[in-house]
Design goal:
By secondary structure, the chain is an all-alpha fold. It is about 75% helix and about 0% strand. The chain is built from 19 helices and two strands. The chain is globular.
Length: about 525
C-alpha cells in the first residue's frame, strides 16, 4: 500500500511541476496588463475551446457530478448535464463571435470593462458594480476548488485537510501569478486532456469490476429517482394521486443551469481572447462534443461507484452523505492502484485529473477576480493611476489576496463542492447573463437598464435562495431561473423608461453588426 501511495505521489508531483514550468515559460510573454489578463487575444481555436471548457467544469465534473449521481441516480445529475450541454452550445453559437468582435471594437480587456465601454459609462458605475459581483461570487467559487484539493490530499495521503488545501492553493497561485492568462489557458488545455484520460480510465475500470453494465444498471434501480427523468403519477386507494420522480418544475429548474453560461466571466473572457473570430465555429464543435462526453461519463462513474460499493469492491464512503459521496472517484482510483506499478501510475493520473479540474477553474477565476479589483475598482472607480509595471504588481498582489480569502472560506472541510458551485453559478448567470445578452443583441438597451439588471439579478439570487426556496413545493426552483427572468425584465423596463442610447453608441452597435456580416 505504501508503494502505491509513493507512486501516485510521484505522478502528481511531476504533473504539478509541469504546471509550474508552464507558468515560468509564459512569465516573459506578459508585457502589459492586457497580456496578463487577456493574453493579447492570441488563443487558437483548439486552445480556446478546451481551456474554456476546462475552466468551466472545475472539481464539479469529477467530484460534484459523480457524487450527485451516486446518491440520486440520473435524475438531478442528468437534467443538470443536459441544461449545461445546451447552454455550452448556445453560448458558443450566439455569444462568442459577437463578443469577440464587440470587445475588440471597444478595446475592453475585462467583462466589467466591456459593459462600461459598451454603454459609455464614464463614471464607471456599471463596471464597479460588475466588479463587486465578480468578487462576491468568485471568492466562494474559488474556495470550493481549494476545498476539493484539500479533500483529495486528505483522502489520499491522510494529510491534514487544511495543510493540503493551502499547499494546493499555493501551486495554483504560483503559476497563475507568474504566467497570467496565457499560462492559465495552456495549462487548462493540458488539464482538459488529463481530465479526459482520468474519466475514461475510471469508467472502464469501474464497469469491469462492477460485473458489467447489466449489474450496474440493475443496482441503479435501488438509487432514489435513478431514472425518473419525468413525473410519474399513481392512483391511491382514497382516490388521490401520488407523485414520484422528477416533475415539470424540477426539470425546468435543473435545465436552467444552462442559462449560467451567458454570464460566466472566466468563460466569456476566452471568447474575447480568441485570435480569429472566423475560427469560432471549429472551437464550438470541439467544446460541445467534449462537454457532452465528459458529463455523460462523469454521471456514469457515480452510478458505477454505487454498484462497486454495493458489491464490496470499494469502501462504504464512511456512510452515505453528499460530502463523502464526492470522493467516489478517489475510492475507485485507490482500488485501481492495487494492480501493479503501471496501474499505480494510471491512478496517479486520475488524481492529477481531479487536481486538473480544480486548478483549471481556480486559475481562471483568480484572474477574473484580480482583474476586477485592480482594473475596474482600483483604477476605474477609485481613479488610482498606475504605470504598466505598477499595474502588473498590483494585479499579482490582488490575485494573492483573493486566493487567501478563498482559503479562509474553504476552511470547513464539510462544505459541499456541488452546492457551493451551484450558488456561485446562479449568481453569475442571473447578473451578467441578461446584461451580456441585451448588450450584444438589443440596440435600445442602455446603461441604466444594465445597472438595474445587475442589481436585481444579484438581489434576487439571495432572496430566492434563502427566503423563497426554503418554502418548498412549487417554490423549490433553482434560484438562477427566477433571478434571471427578473433581471431581464428589469433591463427591458428600465431601458424603455429612460433615455435612449446616444447616437455614437447606436452607430457602434450597427458597425459591429456590419463587421460580423462581412
Amino acid at each position: 500500500m505504501a508503494s502505491n501511495i509513493i507512486g501516485i505521489l510521484v505522478t502528481i508531483i511531476v504533473y504539478l511541476g509541469g504546471m509550474l514550468a508552464i507558468g515560468a515559460v509564459f512569465t516573459k510573454k506578459n508585457k502589459d496588463v492586457s497580456d496578463f489578463y487577456l493574453g493579447g487575444r492570441k488563443l487558437g481555436p483548439f486552445v480556446s475551446a478546451m481551456s474554456a471548457e476546462a475552466s468551466d467544469m472545475s472539481s464539479w465534473l469529477l467530484m460534484g457530478l459523480p457524487g450527485v449521481a451516486y446518491l440520486c441516480g440520473i435524475a438531478e445529475a442528468g437534467w443538470t448535464a443536459i441544461g449545461l450541454a445546451i447552454g455550452t452550445y448556445l453560448n458558443w453559437l450566439i455569444v462568442a463571435k459577437r463578443l469577440r468582435v464587440y470587445s475588440q471594437k471597444t478595446n475592453s480587456i475585462t467583462i466589467p470593462d466591456f459593459f462600461s465601454d459598451r454603454y459609455r459609462d464614464h463614471k464607471q458605475i456599471l463596471s464597479g458594480i460588475a466588479a463587486l459581483v465578480i468578487l462576491i461570487f468568485f471568492v466562494p467559487y474559488t474556495a470550493s476548488g481549494f476545498s476539493a484539493c484539500g479533500k483529495l490530499f486528505a483522502t489520499l495521503f491522510n494529510m491534514n485537510y487544511h495543510t493540503a488545501m493551502i499547499l494546493a492553493a499555493f501551486i495554483i497561485i504560483a503559476y497563475t501569478s507568474m504566467g497570467g492568462f496565457l499560462a492559465a489557458s495552456f495549462t487548462d488545455l493540458i488539464q482538459s486532456i488529463v481530465m479526459t484520460i482520468a474519466l475514461i480510465i475510471v469508467v472502464f475500470f469501474g464497469i469491469s469490476h462492477a460485473g458489467g453494465m447489466d449489474a450496474v444498471m440493475e443496482n441503479a434501480k435501488s438509487i432514489p429517482d435513478y431514472l425518473h427523468m419525468t413525473v410519474t403519477r399513481s392512483l391511491n386507494a382514497d382516490g388521490s394521486f401520488s407523485q414520484t420522480g422528477y416533475g415539470f418544475l424540477p426539470i425546468v429548474s435543473t435545465l436552467a443551469w444552462g442559462l449560467g453560461y451567458f454570464g460566466m466571466p472566466h468563460i466569456l473572457l476566452r471568447f474575447m481572447a480568441i485570435e480569429e473570430h472566423n475560427k469560432i465555429k471549429l472551437s464550438r464543435r470541439i467544446a460541445s462534443v467534449w462537454v457532452v462526453i465528459a458529463m455523460a461519463v462523469a454521471i456514469l462513474i457515480g452510478i458505477v461507484g454505487n454498484q462497486l460499493t454495493a458489491n464490496g469492491t470499494i469502501g462504504t464512503l464512511f456512510g452515505v452523505d453528499t460530502n463523502n459521496s464526492e470522493t467516489i472517484i478517489m475510492e475507485i482510483a485507490m482500488r485501481l492502484s492495487e494492480n501493479g506499478i503501471l496501474a499505480t501510475i494510471v491512478a496517479g493520473l486520475i488524481f492529477s485529473g481531479i487536481l486538473a479540474c480544480t486548478m483549471s477553474t481556480s486559475d481562471s477565476q483568480l484572474l477574473a477576480a484580480s482583474s476586477s479589483m485592480s482594473e475596474n475598482i482600483l483604477k476605474g472607480v477609485c481613479k488610482i493611476k498606475l504605470n504598466e509595471k505598477q499595474s502588473m504588481l498590483v494585479a499579482r498582489c490582488v490575485l494573492v489576496v483573493i486566493a487567501v480569502l478563498g482559503v479562509i472560506l474553504a476552511w470547513n472541510p464539510n462544505s459541499s463542492v456541488f452546492r457551493v458551485v451551484s450558488f456561485a453559478w446562479a449568481g453569475f448567470g442571473a447578473t451578467f447573463g441578461p446584461v451580456m445578452l441585451t448588450a450584444l443583441f438589443w440596440k435600445r438597451s442602455n446603461k441604466f437598464g444594465a445597472i438595474a439588471g445587475l442589481v436585481v439579478g444579484g438581489v434576487m439570487i439571495f432572496i430566492w435562495k434563502f427566503l423563497v426556496r426554503p418554502l418548498g413545493g412549487a417554490w423549490d426552483i433553482y434560484e438562477l431561473l427566477p433571478a434571471f427572468i427578473c433581471a431581464m425584465i428589469a433591463i427591458i423596463v428600465v431601458s424603455l423608461l429612460t433615455k435612449a442610447p446616444e447616437q455614437d453608441i447606436i452607430d457602434e452597435y450597427d458597425e459591429v453588426g456590419k463587421m460580423l456580416k462581412a
